[in-house]
Recover the amino acids of this structure.
């Protein structure tokens, strides 16, 4: 593993909450600077590999916004600030609706707002990669059509193989590919369907390769991975008051054919990366296709967005 796109933002648009996790992630990386470096550009990713170090490319789970509704400029001012602090990719929505558009958990599927289109233009200008992994179907489609730079659905699945809110239907997949973007296949059993194992994951990769081409496919494992010792470790944590359900965790009623996999310990994490390569070899993908899916495609999208940014 040479580099990861690391979620360093909260599942909210509140700037201070987003800033806390970004600060924590940068601090942790700085403490490990002998082994890990924070990459500010795609060139830094390649330099870290040449030096034998691991690199992190920081992302956020939402676009931080002032949320005062006074002026567009005021709402957009945090984009450049977070870019200067190291963020290089942002989710437009995180499951729920916000000022930008509908998330994948909204049954109305209303798409992008006028303001959302302005956000995308500003992200393109600054050099921030637009991510629609948690966006609704229509929001994802319209984003791919509006963005002047390649976008990503960083960790999702093919809706045609398993109808799920976090998956992407064929028109969305094709629109992302038409714009030069990339669709990353995650390793969450519930999103994959079937047995929810590595074979199901390979099914989604093979489907995407056939549907939109290997140059638009990647692996985005997500973080649904629990240690086999997880339950025992949690028993050592002192009792805490009950938590309220997070806003972003409210989901519509699952469709009738939805299969839920409660055992997330079977999720495919980064530790399974060698087996992803083996799986793609067994599916008949070429060496060049596999290299592109393992990282080349994501690096290309990062480069195009970085190189296309306007000077401050």
């Amino acid at each position: 593993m040479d580099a990861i796109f690391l979620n360093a933002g909260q599942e909210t648009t509140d700037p201070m909450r987003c800033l806390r996790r970004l600060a924590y992630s940068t601090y942790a990386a700085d403490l490990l600077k002998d082994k890990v470096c924070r990459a500010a550009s795609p060139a830094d990713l390649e330099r870290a590999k040449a030096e034998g170090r691991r690199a992190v490319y920081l992302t956020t789970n939402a676009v931080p916004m002032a949320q005062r509704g006074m002026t567009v400029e005021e709402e957009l001012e945090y984009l450049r600030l977070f870019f200067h602090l190291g963020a290089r990719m942002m989710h437009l929505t995180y499951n729920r609706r916000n000022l930008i558009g509908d998330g994948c958990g909204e049954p109305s599927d209303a798409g992008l707002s006028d303001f959302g289109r302005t956000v995308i233009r500003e992200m393109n200008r600054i050099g921030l990669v637009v991510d629609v992994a948690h966006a609704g179907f229509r929001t994802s489609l319209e984003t791919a059509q509006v963005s002047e730079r390649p976008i990503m659905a960083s960790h999702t699945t093919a809706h045609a193989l398993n109808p799920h809110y976090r998956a992407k239907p064929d028109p969305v997949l094709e629109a992302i590919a038409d714009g030069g973007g990339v669709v990353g296949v995650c390793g969450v059993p519930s999103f994959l369907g079937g047995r929810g194992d590595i074979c199901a994951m390979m099914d989604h990769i093979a489907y995407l390769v056939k549907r939109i081409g290997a140059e638009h496919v990647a692996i985005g494992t997500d973080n649904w991975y629990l240690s086999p010792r997880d339950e025992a470790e949690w028993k050592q944590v002192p009792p805490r008051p009950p938590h309220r359900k997070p806003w972003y965790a409210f989901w519509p009623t699952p469709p009738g054919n939805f299969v839920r996999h409660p055992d997330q310990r079977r999720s495919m994490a980064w530790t399974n990366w060698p087996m992803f390569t083996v799986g793609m070899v067994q599916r008949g993908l070429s060496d060049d296709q596999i290299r592109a899916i393992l990282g080349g495609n994501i690096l290309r999208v990062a480069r195009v967005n970085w190189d296309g940014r306007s000077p401050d």
Summary: The chain has one domain: 3-237+250-307. Residues 3-237+250-307 form a domain with the TIM Barrel fold (CATH 3.20.20.140). The radius of gyration is 19 Å. The longest strand covers residues 54-60.
